[in-house]
Specification:
Helix content of chain A: 40-55%
Distance between the termini of chain A: 51 Å
CATH superfamily of the largest domain in chain A: NAD(P)-binding Rossmann-like Domain
Largest interface: A-B, 64 and 64 residues
CATH topology of the largest domain in chain A: Rossmann fold
Largest sheet of chain A: 9 strands, mixed
Oligomer: homotetramer
Structural class of chain A: alpha/beta
Order of helices and strands of chain A: EHEHEHEHHEHEEHEHEHHHHHH
Chain lengths: 295, 295, 295, 295
């Protein structure tokens, strides 16, 4: 399969390596030059614009930092939409807003192109190991076409519906649930620590009994050790996803009290100098509220 | 080992069966007569008062509904404390308050008796299958004496510290984390349902990827099916544990914003006629706030 | 003084009447024709575009529904900015976002025009009676020029700073405080009503003792009578101001827990069919959560 | 009228002075000796026990620190209830719990004594100036008998119902509304200060327009100046009233989201060393969350 890949960050580069390993023909583009070098060394052609990269591609995958980048690369000058053939599929795999996904749906339909959203769950290590979980949504023909490519980068694909934006909503919801785990553990650790119990013991009890999911182990471990730097997922990105969640919830008229608390945790974290830390550093607020000295 | 067992509810009866199966000599007491019959049929002697049951016991285990029952059985007329020998251990395995556990610590110390707390995580099925997780706390000599008994009813014992009440605090914290899972899933399902996505699909994606812990499967499944009756753990009991958590948090001066939201969910649930349902029915409030008709 | 007035809604029309009464020469514009008729009858010239209306004006006042309208009328085709003379002042008196106010500041500066923000507190009756309270901000020369006009429509002017957007922030903050009064009264009334106390009595006690401010009387009275229709200030407008407040708070990195609760009240109100009611109908949620039947 | 007055703190002493000034015959009791001296100097007889003080009294007024003191003085050894004549009235004027008020109702009824609750709004200065607002509740005959006494200490009496505890509920509700004013102003000031606006100006605008009630002036002024010491009403007392409110709300099954936030503010204040300050110092948390350095 001939795949155009736009966006060679940590996640994107790992995904390209897996696509190549699985026998796909990949043409790539990245805004800056440096990240293209190791990819080019794999035999991947590097093009000068998104439009050029998409010429003749069956599928164009975007994996970009945020809505701004995704919109510029897709709809901007020399953008993906200019180069993609009729009947080819754009699949957006980064975490973008529900609103932008709806906009892409319309723009591609107007050109006779297909569009699907397939955001991923997993950090760069998971991408490297082809272990991503993928939430996909789009019309059945689009999903059918992109499935081989998705299978080359993830361990499991979950199809959520026919509206691409539904996959984006699910992705934002998943990230919301992660923040709920972070906050609830932060409160739990603050309480038990003040009760004189070693947090390590609480962590072990929880993660070896009812809360054995990876997400409790990963984030519980980070909070336990206070290891918020270097960030695996930076504070402002976590905050952005919370904002996109709340925007989607506002449009759908759904109150989310837990998300509201998380929002304020992000704001307090940023106001108190933690913008460069991992998003799990919102856990510092619960400790500080309980009177613990936090760095 | 000679064990006195006080409290033959669903949980307690299952635990007694496992103690007998594992070769312990058990003498039991229960406030009402009916539940003693199947236990007596196992060859367990039934005594008329807690004090009588504790005569000659190495260990006395209490498994009672709430603080009121635990206090009456332990410190009341013909209570456990009257019958238990010096040097023997009382281990409280039900979910009681931190304050009552502290009171027991003092009362037993004054009599030269030992005291430990060892509340359990798990529903009656888990108790039956000897699969309970146990959070234990107490002086090392007390813990050492009760370990064989605990191993006969649970799959894993986590020792939290030397103050018995620390185990109670951890138990309340664990229940708090469960309620956070319930509320966060309720919000997630309300949001995605309003976005037109089948909840079944969201449930599968979550529980087969990052949120694979038993607690997400159990409670996600209950919410998904709206199966809140018959209750596995009744609304007022869940509410009581939230109250005990908040009381402990108040004493320790620890703000818990998520617990505050859960508190109000319990109150709204009770005010709206859901007192007889499973505690996971607090999930109905998020759906109702989002405009869904809930029964 | 020669004043261009753009936007003849209930508030704007009342303000124009007061400007005329106070001897100002007013030229007006409105998007639709109907509301211009009674104003024209006062001897006010009606122009076909905002730009036309602003020709030769010393001051151009905008009083428009929302950011969209304010931006179109100010910066759009044949907009205010096209017609306003160098050195003349645009004063925006409607409730707009901090971000848009910043945008106007720059756009006018680039044209050598002055800009100030002067949003008002008060319902149409107050506008009619020249009783508005005005929060103004802008450079001293701009404030000096507009003061006579502001004095003709309001009872008191409060200058908040030299950045126009500061007045907008204060206006949003004022509306936020009103919503806090609504929510706190809603909770107070739900609690005391369930305690068997007549709400009328609670209302009297509060408003005749510590809470004697107009805002408690006005909103307490509306909640007490459940008189949410016809709306004095419609639900979606209240919700919009909460959104603008939260956007400003996000930019400034300020957590606002009370505002977060209000946000969810607005969402629940809209999700449950109350979009056409007065914004104080968010009070219905507290009653419903307490188990009261609300229409 | 012959009045027994139990509790000579700041509030109680001021009230006794007004009772004497208005011609009542007062007999007093206080737990400690020192405060009785200036009262004795007014010609007030001081008795050795509450029971002794109540002999021959038409009315016994209690004005005590908390539930513990009120219960001991009323129902304890040599308590009020022992000395009060049949048909005489006990009126509890301090802020006590709804539950304790219910207990008093029963206890007095069993003795053929009357009981009313009449908690007051106002600080010691208001008590001194005979400017207290009084929320009273009780059977009509009890209310009729105590009215002359209440009129001698307050400026206005509001009768809430026939159940004494209703007055206590209203008092707790009033204090809750005050904390809502404190928190909402704290958030408002944090936001506008970060927007570069002088808090003094915001305070003036608010208190001279829509928020002209005494409560905004008093508490807004305290927050503005950061003048939290010496305390007018100490943090732990404010926290206690919040706790009693939440207990009453739990019994009545009424969720109170604003009260939940206030609860956590009190806990964070205490955990961060502010227990000796005025209760309005909970305002420091909003400032700290916004990144302001607070002492």
């Amino acid at each position: 399969m001939h795949i155009a890949f736009l966006g060679l960050g940590n996640m994107g580069s790992a995904m390209v390596r897996n696509l190549v390993k699985n026998g796909h023909r990949v043409v790539a583009w990245n805004r800056s030059y440096e990240p293209t070098k190791p990819i080019h060394a794999l035999g991947v052609a590097i093009e000068r614009t998104p439009a050029d990269a998409c010429k003749d591609a069956d599928i164009a995958i975007t994996m970009l930092a945020d809505d701004g980048a995704a919109e510029a690369v897709t709809l901007g000058k020399d953008g993906l939409i200019e180069g993609l053939a009729e009947g080819a599929v754009h699949v957006s795999m980064s975490t973008i807003s529900v609103a932008l996904s709806d906009k892409f749906t319309e723009a591609h339909a107007a050109r006779g192109q297909l569009y699907a959203a397939a955001p991923v769950f997993g950090r760069p290590e998971a991408a490297e190991a082809q272990k991503l979980f993928i939430a996909a949504a789009g019309k059945p023909d689009a999903i059918a076409k992109i499935t081989p490519a998705l299978e080359s980068v993830g361990q499991k694909i979950f199809v959520m519906g026919e509206e691409p934006a539904q996959a984006n909503l699910v992705k934002l919801t998943g990230n919301f649930l992660i923040t709920c785990v972070i906050e609830s553990l932060a409160e739990a650790f603050a309480l038990t620590a003040k009760g004189g119990i070693e947090t390590q013991k609480v962590f072990e009890l929880l993660t070896e009994s009812l809360f054995s999911a990876p997400v409790y182990k990963t984030y519980g471990g980070l909070i336990l050790e206070g290891k918020f730097s270097p960030p695996g997922f930076k504070m402002p990105l976590g905050q952005k996803d919370n904002r996109l969640l709340q925007q989607a919830a506002e449009k759908l008229e759904v109150p989310l009290p837990f998300a509201a608390i998380i929002r304020d945790r992000f704001l307090a974290a940023r106001a108190n100098g933690d913008s460069e830390l991992d998003w799990s550093a919102i856990a510092k607020r619960a400790a500080e509220d309980a009177g613990f000295e936090v760095k």
